[in-house]
Design goal:
Elements: H1 4-56, E1 60-67, E2 88-89, E3 97-108, E4 114-120, E5 122-124, E6 139-144, E7 149-159, H2 160-171, E8 180-187, E9 194-204, E10 207-209, E11 216-219, E12 231-233, E13 238-245, E14 250-251, H3 255-259
Antiparallel strand pairs: 1-3, 2-11, 3-7, 4-6, 4-8, 5-7, 8-9, 9-12, 9-13, 10-11, 13-14
Length: 260
């Protein structure tokens, strides 16, 4: 026979354990609420600091213009232009090159000077104005005064084999494996300040197979689009870094990171 006192004691023990679990959960929940409230307060402070840095930041506009067409055969010879009648035979011509060029224009729309560095597959428009520059080097650390424009070229040299690989990938619905890329980096030079970055990417299929000919290639002649659209330029978007201290490498965290 079950003893009533034993049942009561067991029920009491279970009830006490349940109450303890509820109390523990409540404490944990309250702690999470407190942490989230604290994070929310910090997020407001961070948003305010970023808004202040935005208001004080330089106003640089980066604009990609139309790619040049036709591409060059030699980056050092602006007259080395293949024509629609030019035919290349593989594998003999695979190592010949085509140079594709995209003009990029920077405009400092504000009144503050902006320190700019440009790197990647880039080339100054006027190399005589920058005699220290050499092919493959970045265009480094120059100051753009307020209201002043600056133009450079995103320019890359790929072999005919690499351009043919792009054409084959496009036909198979795959991402194009070869591209021309660079970046513009601008800063206000302050310890607590900003760094802006724009990635520049151009790719495409400037050559195609000659219909009915084995291993022969020519410039792409797509009548459905303007010739300069044969080369594609990815949208240019700004990425901004907010510095608590540039010197110490400390960034302001994102609000999302604070609340997660």
């Amino acid at each position: 026979m079950v003893n009533g006192w034993d049942v009561a004691a067991a029920v009491g023990t279970v009830a006490s354990a349940a109450a303890a679990a509820v109390a523990t959960g409540l404490v944990a929940w309250q702690a999470r609420l407190a942490r989230r409230a604290n994070a929310s307060a910090h997020a407001v402070v961070i948003d305010s600091a970023k808004a202040r840095l935005d208001a004080e930041a330089p106003d640089l506009d980066v604009r990609a213009l139309a790619p040049a067409w036709p591409p060059l055969s030699d980056a050092q010879d602006s007259a080395s232009l293949p024509t629609r009648d030019t035919v290349w035979s593989f594998p003999g011509d695979e190592r010949k090159t085509l140079v594709c060029t995209l003009a990029v224009e920077l405009t400092n729309r504000g009144t503050r000077d902006v320190e700019v560095t440009i790197h990647g597959d880039v080339r100054p428009v006027d190399e005589l104005a920058d005699p220290a520059w050499q092919p493959g080097q970045p265009i480094e650390d120059f100051l753009m005064p307020g209201r002043e424009p600056y133009r450079f070229h995103l320019q890359g040299t790929l072999t005919l084999r690499q351009w043919a690989d792009n054409q084959d990938a496009q036909g198979q619905g795959r991402p194009l494996p070869h591209r021309i890329a660079g970046a513009v980096i601008a800063t206000d030079r302050r310890d607590e300040g900003i760094t802006d970055r724009w990635e520049l990417v151009m790719t495409g299929c400037p050559i195609e197979r000659v219909p009915g000919a084995a291993d022969q290639w020519r410039l792409t002649t797509d009548s459905a689009v303007p010739q300069w659209k044969i080369l594609t330029v990815e949208p240019v978007a700004r990425e901004r870094t907010y510095w608590i201290s540039r010197r110490r490498g400390l960034e302001y965290p994102s609000v999302e990171d604070m609340l997660n």
